[in-house]
Amino acid sequence: MADRGSIKVTVTGVTDVGRVRDHNEDNLLVADLTAEERPGSGQTISLQLGDRGLLLAVADGMGGAASGEIASETDVEILFETFSAKEVTEGSAESEKISAALDDSLQTANTRIHNRGLEQAEHRGMGTTMTAAFVSGDSVHIAQVGDSRAYLLRKNKLVQVTKDQSLISQLIEDGTLTEEEAEKLGGRNIILQALGVEADVNVEVKSMEVLDGDLLMLCSDGLSGMVKDAMMEENLASADDVGAAAERLVSMANDAGGRDNITVILARFEGPGLRAPMKAIESRRKGGSRGGPAPVERFVAPETPQAEPKRSRSRTLLLGGIGVIGLAVIVFLLSGGSSSVTLVFPAPGGTATMTPAGGGGGGLVIKAGPGETTVEVTDLEPGNYILEARLAHYQPLTARLISVSQGASRLKVPFSPLPGRLTLKTGTPHVTVAILEIDPFEPDHPYREVIENLADLADGMTIARVPAGLLGLSVSRQGFRPRELTVTLPPEGDETVTLPELEPINGILVVRCPVPGARVTVLDEFGEEIISKSVDSAGSALELEVRVGTSRNVKITHDEHHPFEQVVEEIAEGGRVALDVELVKKDGGVTVTGPANGILTFRLKGSDQVVRRSRIEQSGSVMVSLPPGEYEVEMIDGETTENLEVVVSASKEAKVRFSE
How far apart are CA 179 and CA 308, in angstroms? Predict the structure, then answer.
C-alpha cells in the first residue's frame, strides 16, 4: 500500500464540440473526492492523492436532438453522486469493493437513463458510452461500457488498456475482418453496448497498478477515431504540461476533420509512494465483471504499442437480434449452391446497394419496382458486404454489415418506419387515453403515451411522432367501463380516431327530502351535472341512478328554503347510499310604517319570546327580516303603545302600518 499523501497527481480535462456537430453530447468528470474539488473543462489541478481517491470519467452520448447530451450528463452526475456516497478506501484488500462500487454506480446510471427514455418518448433509445477510472493509492480501477477508451503512457509507450465494445473490434478479434479491411470500411463503427439503451448492461471492470511517471488518458472516440495512436503517443511522450498536451490533442482531432465531439482527460502520477516502472509482476487475481469479482491485473507497457485502426464517429448501436431498435448489423450464413440473396422490403419501391466490405469495387445497386417488395440478387461472390437501403416513409438503412457465403437465403430488410401523427376525438369528456405500441420485437419496452382528462374537443387532440405500426388504445374514466381498440398507423401517416363513448357504471342514491318541489342535482368530480330531479311530495324518497365514483356532490334547491349541499362518499356499482335532508326556510320581509323613532318588538304569536327588536327610521318606515311564522308586533312611541299582528312567509314581503 502506498504511503498516503506521497502521491502527486496533475490532472486536466478538456471537451470540445468539434468542427461538424452543432452541440456537444460529450461530458467529463474530474473529482478529487478527498478535497471535494471538481474542476471543469480546461482547468488543470495538482493534488496530493487523499484517502478518498480521485474519480475520472468520459461519457459520449447518442440519441438525436438533445437526448445524447442528456444521457451523458445524467451518467456523469449519477456516477459522481452514487460512487462518492460509497465507503471505499485505498489498498488491495478493498479492490473488489471498489470494483463492485464502480459496477453498481454504472448500473444505477443505466437504469435511470433507460427509465427516462421509457417515460419520455422524445428521449426513447438514448444512451451513452462511459469510461470511468477511480485512482486509490497505487491502483487505478477502470470501468468500461461502449467505445470510449482508457490509455496508459508508460516509459513513453502508449497502450490502450480498455477493449472497445464495438462490432469492428469484435470482428477483428474473431478473425472475420482484418485491420486493413476494417480501415477500408470508412470508419463505420458500431457499438455493442451503451448505458441507458437496454434494461441490462454488462460493465467491464479491471484494476492495475500505477507506477511513478505514468500518464493515464481517458478519451471519447472523437479523439481516438480521428488521431492515430502513434501520433497521440508522440504528443504525450514529449509533454511536460498535461494541460497543454490535452489542448494539442483536441487541436489534432479538429485538424483531422473534427467530425465528432472531442473529450480527453490526462492524469500524470508522481511521487515516492509509487513503484518505479522496472519489471512486471504477477496478476493479483482474475475474474469476470458482472456476477463475479472484477479482474485485477498488474500492467507493464510492452516494447511497442498495440496499434488500433482509425475510426470516425459514424456509428450505430447493435442490441439483440433482427428487428430490435438500433439494429446495425445483419450476419447471415448461406449454404450449398451458388450465392444469392432475396431482399424483402416492407413496401414497394425500395432501393439498396451492396458494397464489398474489403473494398475493390464491384458494388451492386438493387431496385424494387413500383409493385415489388422482393428482389433477388444472384451471382454474389462470398464475403462481407455493406448493405445500405432506402424506402419512402422509412428511416434510411446505413452501414449494415452482412456476411455472404455460398447458398441462397431470404433477408427481410429491417427498416424502421418513420413516425406519424395521431388525432383523437372523443364523445365522452374527461377520458384518459393510453396509447401503447404493439411491437413484437420490443415487448418489454414499448412506446407508451398517456393523455389524461381529454376534453370533448370538436377538432380533437393531435399527438406528433407516434411510432408507425399497430397501436393499442385504452380509453378509461372513473365511473365508466373502459374500452380498448387497435389502430394501424402507416409510416408518416396522419390518422384520426374517434374514441368510443363509454358506458357509465351506476349505483343508486336515495334522497329523502320533506319539501315538495325541491330540486335534487348530482354533480360529478368535474362539476358537471349527472342527474337532476324534483321531489314529488312531502317525505317522498327519490331513487337516483348515478355514476359510481370516489365522491358525488349533491345540491338541493327550493325557492323558499336555503340551498343544501353535501358530498356523498363512494357509491359502489349496484350499491345504494341513502341521504336524509332537512331544508331550512329562508327569511321573509316585513315593512313597518309608523312614527319616526318608534321602538318595535317582534314576538311569536302566543309567546313571550322576543325574536327581534328594531326602530322606525326617520323616514317613517323600516324593513325587518324574520323567519316564517305568525308574529305580534308592539310599537312604543313615547308614552303611546300599539299592538298589531303579521304573518311572515319565506321569500315574501308583508306590511304593517301603525298610526302616525
Answer: 8
